[in-house]
Structure formats: C-alpha cells, structure tokens
C-alpha cells in the first residue's frame, strides 16, 4: 500500500502510510504512534526542523489528511489497463476530436498516474488540462463524472495546486455535485472540499460560495454513511474560519449534527466543537432538547478524540448556560470526569480540569 500512495501520506519518521496523522507545533505532520514514541523517549525537538518544542507538546489531529488517506483507495481507478505516456493522455483528454471512450480512458489512466506522482500532478495543471477535467466534472455521464472527480481530487493534493484549482472554478463544479451527483460522486466532492480547504485562504473562498455550506448541510441530512462522514469532515475543515461557523449555524447545522452524533457519527462532535465557540452556536445547541444528554453519551462511549471534543463543547455550554450546568450535574458528569482522570491525552486532561472547575464553581443549581 505504501508504495501506491503519495509520499505526503507517509510519516516522516516511520516512512509508512499514516493511520492517525497529527500536526506538531512545528507545523509538520507525523503519525501519532511514531511522534508519540519520539516524545516518550524524552525528545523535545521536532524530528524535521530540530527546533525546540514545549515541555508538553500538543498533537493536533490532521483531519483533512486523515480523511484523504482513508478515502484514497475508494477513488482509485482500475489497474488492469495499460498506461500511455502522460502527454498522450493529456492530448487525448483535451482534443475536441477524441472519442468519448478515449477521453474516459485518459481520465482513468491520468487518475492512476497522478495518484502517486506529485510532479505529474504539477505538470498536468501547468499543461492547461484543468479546464478539460472540470468540463467532465460537469458531465451528465456519471462514469465520466466520477473519474473526473477522482482526477480532480488527486490534483488538489498538492498545496501549490489548491489555490489555482479554486481560481479555475473547481468549487462551483464540486458544489453542484454535492447537490445533484450520485452518492459516490457526492462523497468524493466533499473530500475535494476538505482537500482544498487545507490552504487557509480557500476556507473563506469556499464558504463565500452561496450554496457551498448549505449543500454540505443537506448532505448531512440526505446522504448515506460515507457521504455524511465526508460532509462533516469538510464542514470541520472550512469552519475553522470564523465566518463559516455562522454560515453553518444559519443553515441549521447544529440540530442536524446533534442528531447525527446521537446516532453514532462521532465526526459530528468535532464540528460542534467549532460551532460552540460562537455565541450563536451555543444558543442553537441550548435549543435542542437532549443536547447535554447526547454530549454525556460521547463522554461515556466516545473515542479519545470524541471525548476531547465532548469535554470542550460541554464546558463551553456550561460556562454559557446555568441550565446546562444543572443538567450536566444531573446527568452525572462529575462522576464521569472522575473516571477519566487517568487519561494521558494532554488536551483531555486540560478540558477535564476546566469542566470540573466549571461544574464545581459558583453556578447555582435550580
């Protein structure tokens, strides 16, 4: 597997494909197991830059990269067909006289080649092939559309391409797919949004598209399992930009996310952990009957990451609302917190301490 995926998916320490990529304060991404082993050995420098790290370094989950890695094999083209020279494939793709079958073959082969060749991805964008790829994203043929989306996802993996793809009009096409595409195409389209949003400037640009966030929120409602997960991941990626949080809230994302969280989509708590930072988000959460109960469920049964976001979200609500504090105590949150004191995750420790202080503070019951 590691030889088939882009080098960017490999941990700089283990050189293996990352299963749980995290970002160090130096800005570099590593697999959690590898960097934790490095830190546990007493190192307090970045393995790449050699710059000093804090005494207790934070490991920030790289959700965008994790999502791209986990979905990459799902958009892989067939390997049974022989590959032509890249320039020949590009010419066949862009030529008006090429038969549709030839164009489909070119899309398929280029998707396969660009999957593990970053230099080819750059050459392809420089060759002027992007408009042709986007044209096929607009195709009414679902097979052509899916292959074009797969190629577009590959091209978006390079940071140097991300802004250019947005400038070429990729977002408008992808948002259209989110609304009317097939389930597989919608899932890939949401993943492309996540990939493009890795570059900070794109978060604002994507959120400003009139139907981008509404389309992702609708996908949370109408999509199937993979579509919902990718839509939530894309929302998490773009809602680190403050204005996009309010847009998501205005689209009614909060009650939908709480319902999905209750149904077991843990990715929803990560998005709620961003939306709770807004006053409007906290207000919407407090309007949802059983919100605190759902968050308590995450504290009891969630993964380490889910518990981390659950603690943060609940603490924000308890600091904001007296009734939330009362309900959290009623649901036995202090007892649950006592059961989490042995956690080694630094963020969980910090959020746990904050929540205990909030619930043990001056909030009057009733």
Automatic annotation (TrEMBL):
Keywords: Repeat, Transferase, Ubl conjugation pathway
Start-end of each ARM repeat: 128-170
Pfam families referenced in this protein's UniProt entry, alphabetically: ARM_PUB (PF25598), U-box (PF04564)
CDD domains the UniProt entry points to: RING-Ubox_PUB (cd16664)
Isomerase listed as a keyword: no
GO molecular function: ubiquitin protein ligase activity
Cited InterPro entries: ARM-like (IPR011989), ARM-type_fold (IPR016024), ARM_PUB (IPR058678), Armadillo (IPR000225), RING-Ubox_PUB (IPR045210), Ubox_domain (IPR003613), Znf_RING/FYVE/PHD (IPR013083)
Catalytic activity annotation: S-ubiquitinyl-[E2 ubiquitin-conjugating enzyme]-L-cysteine + [acceptor protein]-L-lysine = [E2 ubiquitin-conjugating enzyme]-L-cysteine + N(6)-ubiquitinyl-[acceptor protein]-L-lysine
Pathway(s) per entry: Protein modification; protein ubiquitination
Keyword Transferase: yes
Domain U-box span(s) in chain numbering: 4-79
Biological process terms in GO annotation: protein ubiquitination
EC number(s) given by UniProt: 2.3.2.27
UniProt protein name: RING-type E3 ubiquitin transferase
């Amino acid at each position: 597997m590691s030889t088939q995926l882009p080098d960017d998916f490999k941990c700089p320490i283990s050189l293996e494909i990352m299963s749980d990529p995290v970002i160090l304060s130096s800005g570099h991404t590593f697999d959690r197991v590898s960097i934790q082993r490095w830190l546990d050995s007493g190192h307090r420098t970045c393995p790449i830059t050699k710059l000093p790290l804090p005494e207790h370094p934070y490991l920030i989950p790289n959700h965008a990269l994790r999502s791209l890695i986990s979905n990459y094999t799902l958009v892989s083209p067939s390997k049974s067909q022989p590959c032509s020279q890249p320039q020949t494939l590009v010419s066949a793709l862009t030529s008006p006289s090429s038969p549709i079958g030839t164009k489909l073959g070119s899309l398929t082969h280029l998707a396969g080649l660009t999957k593990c060749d970053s230099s080819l991805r750059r050459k392809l964008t420089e060759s002027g092939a992007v408009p042709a790829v986007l044209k096929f994203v607009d195709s009414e043929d679902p097979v052509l559309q899916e292959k074009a989306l797969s190629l577009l996802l590959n091209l978006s993996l390079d940071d140097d391409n991300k802004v250019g793809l947005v400038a070429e009009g990729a977002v408008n096409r992808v948002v259209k797919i989110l609304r009317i595409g097939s389930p597989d195409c919608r899932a890939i389209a949401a993943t492309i949004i996540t990939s493009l949003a890795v570059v900070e400037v794109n978060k604002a640009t994507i959120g400003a598209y009139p139907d981008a966030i509404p389309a992702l929120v609708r996908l949370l409602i109408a999509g199937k399992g993979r579509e919902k997960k990718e839509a939530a991941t894309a929302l998490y990626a773009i809602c680190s930009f403050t204005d996009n949080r309010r847009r998501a809230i205005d689209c009614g994302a909060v009650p939908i996310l709480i319902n999905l969280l209750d149904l077991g989509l843990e990715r929803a708590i990560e998005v709620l952990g961003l939306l709770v930072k807004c006053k409007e988000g906290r207000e919407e959460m407090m309007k949802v009957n059983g919100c605190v109960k759902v968050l308590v469920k995450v504290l009891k049964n969630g993964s380490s990451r889910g518990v981390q976001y659950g603690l943060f979200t609940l603490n924000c609500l308890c600091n904001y609302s007296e009734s939330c504090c009362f309900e959290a105590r009623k649901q036995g949150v202090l007892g649950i917190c006592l059961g989490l004191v042995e956690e080694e995750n630094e963020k969980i420790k910090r959020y746990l301490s904050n929540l205990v202080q909030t619930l043990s503070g001056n909030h009057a019951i009733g």
